[in-house]
Write a structure and sequence with these properties.
It is a single chain. This protein is an all-alpha fold. The chain has helices at 4-11, 17-26, 33-46, 52-64, 69-78, 85-101. The longest helix is centred in the last third of the chain and has 17 residues, at 85-101. The two termini are 19 Å apart.
Length: 106
């Protein structure tokens, strides 16, 4: 797996600079890059997946952390268990578009 710093480097340009600076200060060794990216996808999905740019950035960061298509889609679908059905539908569509643009088929 890629390191947390590699994940953050891939993601930080999607964030406002002040947010990226705060995140850089908060990041520790407890969570690996893949877990962080999947948590971001889960949170954005649970919130309704209304911020397409943020979700696309999280998916790109997940791919940079060597996360598979299956793991990304499973994370999104898991949010249906907490009742985030609208977010799951929107996030699935966004994820499929982002993954297709990256040439990810499986």
């Amino acid at each position: 797996q890629k390191s947390q710093n590699q994940w953050f480097d891939a993601m930080k340009h999607h964030l406002p600079s002040e947010v990226a600076d705060q995140m850089a200060d908060m990041m520790g060794p407890s969570l690996d890059a893949k877990t962080r990216a999947l948590l971001a996808i889960a949170g954005l999905t649970a919130k309704g997946a209304g911020d397409r740019e943020a979700l696309a950035g999280a998916i790109t960061a997940a791919r940079a952390a060597e996360t598979s298509r299956k793991e990304i889609m499973e994370t999104i679908l898991q949010m249906g268990t907490i009742g985030a059905f609208d977010g799951v539908a929107k996030a699935s569509t966004i994820a499929m578009a982002v993954l297709a643009s990256e040439g990810v088929k499986s």
